[in-house]
Amino acid sequence: xxxxxxxxxxxxxxxxxxxxxxxxxxxxxxxxxxxxxxxxxxxxxxxxxxxxxxxxxxxxxxxxxxxxxxxxxxxxxxxxxxxxxxxxxxxxxxxxxxxxxxxxxxxxxxxxxxxxxxxxxxxxxxxxxxxxxxxxxxxxxxxxxxxxx
Length: 149
Prior knowledge:
The longest helix has 10 residues, at 26-35. It is built from one helix and ten strands. The protein is 7% helix and 37% strand. The termini are far apart. It has a single domain (13-148), classed as Immunoglobulin-like (Sandwich), CATH 2.60.40. The chain is mostly beta strands.
């Protein structure tokens, strides 16, 4: 979106004639995270809790063999604990966990604050414990992706 001439709000990237004003929206970060790790087959999921505030999908990429968990925590005031297993995953299996979050749930990236990004991108490596269970906590406002290595 050219901020000098527009009729609607940007959804991915805002810019002006000054390249220093190019700004990636929060939606850009989410889309990039979720779309760059492909699921070729969805996996059936079960849970011992109600659906929400954690919304998720589990799958597998048959080309890479990676098991994938994509999740969003929405409309919550507290962090959400997650215990996750995949069929065939054993204790000691490592996974990359990427969590996008922010300190202010009402914040957004703007051209006026170019260079400032409200999205915090945290990447950690976690390991499956006994029974092949991955245990982690997701912040109250977050989108995340777990991919086995």
